[in-house]
Write a structure and sequence with these properties.
Elements (H helix, E strand, L loop, with lengths): L8 E4 L3 H14 L3 E5 L3 H9 L3 E4 L5 H6 L7 E4 L4 H14 L4 E5 L3 H10 L3 E4 L1 H14 L3 E6 L7 E8 L10 H8 L2 E5 L2 E2 L12 E7 H7 L4 H4 L4 H10 L2 H6 L3 H25 L3 H12 L14 H38 L10 E4 L3 H10 L6 E4 L5 H10 L2 E3 L6 H5 L8 E4 L4 H14 L5 E5 L2 H10 L5 E3 H12 L5 E7 L2 E9 L12 E7 L2 E4 L11 E7 L3 H4 L6 E4 L6 E4 L10
Parallel strand pairs: 1-2, 1-4, 2-3, 4-5, 5-6, 12-13, 12-15, 13-14, 15-16, 16-17, 19-24
Antiparallel strand pairs: 7-8, 8-11, 9-10, 9-11, 18-19, 19-22, 20-21, 20-22, 23-24
Helix pairs in contact: 1-20, 6-15, 6-20, 12-13, 12-14
């Protein structure tokens, strides 16, 4: 679906993000897309499947850019995992075409902000930061389906969440009253965008809320596991009447064999000397214990004229020495191992209501920073923590376990029975799935947030393993990258009520103009605070506004002019002014 005479765009990258971004541009904006990356037959076929053209070559070389059509392209999106390559490619493209718009992927948010301030007509996004907001939001509230910081880049974590009216105790209330009580914005009700704030919320109505995660968490119905701390009696009952197989599995096999053998010999010796001495069972047991431990008080001795008594006593002494030596050796080894494990950063966690984060890579680090702003204990598992993470754990008070989260022993240390949620955010899809399945085996109803690279694979896992909160980082970020090709204030896209909405952050102009058709204001940042708004009449010039824009089909978008977006230097946002010419509506 290509718009007539639509200018071309170039996507630089060879991973899932590049494919997802090319697909977004082709299906929603209709621009011809060229993907530039070193030759790869399989990747080139995938590019063609999304309707884009593939050009094989080194992105930083001018001849490759020229073959990709940089001279006539309107935008270049450098979204490879290599930050330096992205920047070199973008600058080389700007040399070849001074008018080309630049969209960059960079991990370092500080550098990204400085590049935006100093390079005209440029937007820079961190994939980790863009996707981390959703992962963190879902970990705090499992009904959250999209998260973002507003205002960008250091505003509070906000998000969209789903609710059932009865579960949230909202049935029968007016929309305006419910919003005031919960301090959230009710965006949709039973599949319809809310326009009348005086309407009553019906029983079992399905709601879509927007607000800060702090307020969404407060309005979330509590799970039974979070209601109260178990009493001492309940803990003891779980130990004695819980799963005995779990306790048996935690007993070392060597200790099990030694214990069974010692008890067998003790019972056999007690039975023999009970008859041989003609004494009570306690006295016989006392003699056997003194013999096996080589204590030898001498107050009771075997009858040396009885061969069976002497042989039995010798057997007890010999076996006692052997078992004692083995027991001491094994106990010393276990103590050494326990000390080594603790030195490595593994220890039993006794917290409750904590969030377990498995993997502290690029995305995991951003998620940790977001979660530390909430009143939730945090447990981080990372096999190779860097010094910065270790220092952060010490200074900011979260638990850091140095281990492999896919191992049963490591998960057993995390007290998952009392955890609020678990996040699998490593760089390997199969490892994340293994962690998730291991956690589910320990607590079937534990909310799990799963990171998967490719969107199709993420959907398959969500469907077949019933892990609904499975997200692809590329799929979360691609709408933002695609939207930034034409609109510097794009913040992604959400899908509810059977429709898709682009999320935009704009600064209202000094002289008010008519708002874009179908725009839904959500919140305004003014004077250092965030205010939820339900209409444009509550806004004023200079307000930084977050709003939803319906994603209009391409053939409809060409029928009417769309608002023109202008960059506010260094702000990360845009100002809307009246349109001068027809434009193609983007995301």
């Amino acid at each position: 679906m290509t718009a007539p005479d639509a200018p071309a765009m170039i996507v630089v990258g060879g991973d899932a993000l590049a494919l997802s971004t090319a697909h977004e541009i082709r299906t929603l904006q209709g621009h011809p897309v060229t993907v530039l990356w070193p030759g790869d037959d399989e990747f080139s076929r995938e590019v063609e499947l999304v309707g884009a053209r593939f050009v094989a070559g080194s992105p930083e070389h001018l001849d490759s850019l020229e073959r990709a059509g940089v001279a006539d392209a309107i935008t270049i999106l450098a979204v490879s995992p290599d930050d330096q390559l992205n920047l070199r490619t973008a600058l080389r493209a700007r040399d070849a075409n001074p008018r080309i718009r630049v969209v960059l992927r960079q991990f370092n948010r500080t550098l990204a902000h400085k590049i935006e301030q100093n390079l005209p007509d440029c937007s820079v996004v961190s994939l980790a930061w863009q996707s981390a907001a959703t992962y963190a939001g879902v970990a705090l509230d499992p009904t959250c389906f999209h998260g973002l910081q507003f205002p960008e880049p250091d505003g509070p974590l906000t998000g969209f969440a789903a609710r059932i009216a009865d579960h949230a105790a909202l049935a029968g209330q007016k929309v305006s009253d419910a919003e005031e009580a919960l301090d959230v914005r009710i965006v949709a009700l039973d599949g319809e965008i809310v326009t009348d704030r005086e309407q009553r919320i019906a029983s079992r109505a399905k709601l879509v809320l927007y607000g800060t995660l702090t307020q969404l968490v407060v309005s979330q119905p509590r799970r039974a596991a979070d209601e109260a701390r178990p009493t001492l009696f309940e803990r003891l009952r779980r130990v004695w009447f819980g799963d005995p197989g779990h306790l048996l599995r935690r007993i070392d096999p060597i200790f099990g064999v030694l214990g069974a053998g010692a008890l067998g010999l003790f019972a056999l010796g007690t039975w023999h000397f009970h008859d041989a001495f003609g004494v009570d069972w306690l006295t016989a047991a006392y003699f056997v214990m003194a013999t096996m431990t080589t204590t030898g008080y001498g107050d009771i001795t075997p009858d040396r004229t009885s061969t069976s008594d002497v042989l039995t006593a010798m057997m007890l002494m010999l076996s006692g020495i052997v078992m004692s030596g083995i027991f001491i050796a094994v106990a010393a080894a276990l103590l050494t191992q326990a000390r080594w494990v603790r030195t490595q950063g593994l220890r039993q966690i006794h917290r409750r209501g904590h969030i377990v984060v498995c993997g502290a890579g690029n995305i995991g680090t951003e998620v940790i920073d977001l979660l530390l702003g909430f009143d939730r204990p945090l447990v981080v598992i990372e096999p190779n923590p860097d010094p910065a993470l270790i220092e952060s754990a010490r200074d900011r008070g979260f638990e850091l376990l140095t281990g492999d989260a896919s191992r049963d022993h490591t998960l057993d240390l995390c007290n998952l029975a009392a955890a609020h949620s678990l996040m699998a955010l490593t760089n390997f899809d199969t490892l994340n799935l293994e962690i998730a399945l291991g956690a589910r085996a320990r607590k079937a109803d534990l909310p799990i947030v799963l990171r998967i690279a490719e969107a199709g694979f993420a959907a398959s896992i969500a469907r077949h393993f019933d892990i609904e909160t499975t997200f692809s980082a590329a799929a979360l970020a691609a709408p933002t990258f695609a939207g930034l090709t034409r609109f510097p204030g794009a913040r992604g896209r959400v899908d509810f009520t059977g429709r898709e909405f682009g999320i935009s952050e704009v600064i209202l102009p000094e002289h008010p103009t008519a708002p874009p058709a179908g725009a839904i204001p959500l919140a305004a940042a003014r004077d250092g605070s965030l205010d939820l708004v339900s209409g444009f009449d509550q806004l004023g010039p200079g307000d930084r506004v977050l709003m939803l824009m319906p994603v209009v089909p391409l053939h409809h978008a060409r029928e009417a002019p769309a608002p023109i977006a202008e960059r506010v230097p260094g702000s990360g946002t845009t100002t809307i002014r009246a349109p001068r010419r027809p434009r193609i509506q983007g995301n």
